[in-house]
Write a structure and sequence with these properties.
The chain is of the alpha/beta class. The chain has a five-stranded mixed sheet, with helices on both faces. The chain has a three-stranded antiparallel sheet with strand order 9-12-11. The structure holds ligand F0G.
Amino acid sequence: MTDKTKRRSWAEPFKIKMVELLKMTTKEERLRAIKEAGYNTFLLRSDDVYIDLLTDSGTSAMSDRQWAGMMLGDEAYAGSRNFYHLEEAVGRYYGYRYVVPTHQGRGAEHIISRILIRQGDFVPGNMYFTTTRLHQELAGGTFVDVIIDEAHDPTNQHLFKGNIDIAKLDALLDKVGSERIPYISVATAVNMAGGQPISVQNLREVNEWAQKHGILIIHDATRVAENAYFVKRREPGFENASIASIVKEICSLTDGCTMSAKKDAMVNIGGFLGVNDDEIYDEARNMVVVYEGLHTYGGMAGRDMEAVAIGISESVDYEHIKARVGQVEYLGNKLLEAGVPIVEPIGGHAVFLDAKRFLPHVPQDQFPAQAIAAQLYVEAGVRSMERGVVSAGRNPETGDHRYPKLELVRLTIPRRVYTQAHMDVTAEAVIELYENREKIKGLRMIYEPKYLRFFQARFEVMG
Ligand code: F0G
């Protein structure tokens, strides 16, 4: 990367107004806690965690402007003024004509999947996301991965590993026909690939392909601002474009979006569905009252909608997004310098440890990423998340584990929450764990829930 700012120090574009004290624990306490949690970091109490890198979802620090917005909540059942602010922000920054609020991202995924997918349909997408694919399957669809092959290789240096392989779209079309493909599911800053961006050029090609075949594009806009930052840094022609204009262009190449506002928009809860089509909007507005709430609140309080509206405008600020992605790069580069195997290039929201290279002695059916996450917690009180075979779940047809090529541990950075010193402590803990990696043993799953098993599954250490 030819980023000249790299050799100069930089600091966060904010200062701290309120702090939350952290609890320190001993290794003995953490050993007890992880055993009680069945070696699943989702089942730990957050009070027992020192640095919490489980997720960047709902864990961001809101700004004073967002908190002030919370005090302006209009908690009317219908027609809250905050809904109109949200609608205005979605129109201005993303450009979708209609917005249907939902309690969080998966609420929007549920609604759009039920509206667009029929039994036996196929939904191509640039790598699966857990909740997105499940809603597609529950609606009768089959997800088909059409991301470029490079995305499945953690060492491949492709700058846009979120790109779609048009040849894979063609192959699916030949096999099932356009009438069986309701839409293409396009994520920006692809989470499961390691927070990897899609280029605007690729999206333009996908858009052209979709228009030609009369197929819609539904955009998972959860981390679109992070994607836009990579476009600005890496894609020729966008060097001088604003983050806001890139976000708007990306959205303009799609027909609708599902949004978990808990990420880019830096709120603790909230999401929405954005659409352009009158009929889809009509159906979504009708369905939201069944599953979420009236179409002018959809499961959110008025104050939450206000915080989302303000958060969206903050998410496209260049200094903000540069520091956000910069902090992830800072942690990633420390690990790379120490020889720890991570997904490259470093992604937008998290650093992903490559468990297959980290623990070559633990086979994938003994959940190496889960084992690393558990041991990192025991050693340092740092909480991370498995993104490998446990997260991938079972194939609904065969009932077998799905063995993804990527077996990863995600160190996810909440926005505006931790300092560079927290990143240093985390890096030191991971490096020490890597140096002692041969002591880490595989796990056996002893409890497995039917849906999204990674949230609640329980394990024990192999003897
Ligand atoms: N899409 C993506 C790309 C996500 O990362 C998430 C959530 C969702 C949809 C669902 O949104 O949680 O608001 O219902 N990701 C979180 C994570 C949980 O930790 O990556 P939600």
